[in-house]
Amino acid sequence: MDYLATVRELQPLVICYTNDVVKNFTANGLLSLGASPAMSEAPEEAADFFKVAQALLINIGTLTNQRGEDMLKIAAEANKQGVPIVFDPVAVGASQYRKDFCRRFLEEIQVTVIKGNASEILALVDDAATMKGTDSSVEGIPIDIATRAHHKYNAAVVMTGKTDIIVQDGKGVALDNGTPILTKVTGTGCLLGAVVASFLLKDTHPTVNKLAAAVSYYTISAERATSSASGDLPGTFATVFLDELNQTTTTCYQQEIKKREVKTHDI
Hints:
Its cofactor is Mg(2+). This protein has one domain (about 5-265): Ribokinase (UDP-N-acetylmuramoyl-L-alanine:D-glutamate ligase), CATH 3.40.1190.20. The radius of gyration is 17 Å and the shape is globular. A nine-stranded mixed β-sheet has the order 2-1-3-4-5-6-7-8-9, with helices on both faces. It is built from eleven helices and nine strands. The protein is about 45% helix and about 15% strand. It is of the alpha/beta class. Helix 8 crosses helix 9 (about 210-225) and helix 9 (about 210-225) packs across helix 11 (about 250-255). The protein has helices spanning about 5-10, 25-35, 45-50, 65-80, 95-110, 120-125, 145-155, 190-200, 210-225, 235-245, 250-255, and strands spanning about 15, 35-40, 55-60, 85-90, 115, 155-160, 165-170, 170-175, 260.
């Protein structure tokens, strides 16, 4: 199935409750893709929005007590109306406050996809895990943490890193596309969560292939951006990346995807 073409044809409305640092970049990235972003943070309008929205992104990057309560109310309404949720537990291991909120959120809300780097996913399943900010470095941690999170929270897991890992329905894939410069531009990981949400199209149980398509489209667009003049410099990359999100086609990522299946007992 051509998931990208479907997204561009339907132009899904994606509600983004995301952090203050990345709102503009996230909105522009979704517009470049062909989706329609709405940066709504008011629980009072959630019921109306979810009558037409195709997905909800919850990103906890600039978490406060009030925002946390609003996220829970908005997500509960999404559950009520059958709207899929992508949950991005940004820097969850940085503080007990973030851990407590994420675990409360995942207990009260049924999410469709959990998207995070290895440190963040580990912090969701291991009480002893710590991290510094949004640092994604995990030394000596097996990638079975993605499977542990998948089973614990009954959600698909997109775990990002040098190799991206996706686990869903007992199946796992590893994706080896991407570029290190993604770590030099604020908001790129947050945008990925929004891109994944845009591919869901009201689907609360996406296949591993649909999720792989979303991630591969994103990472291959990033690779293509680095091949442009000065595309290996952060400032230029951020601009050209938006252009490539607009220009990358299904044919491009199908030809360039580096995807391999991973047996779940090996994950």
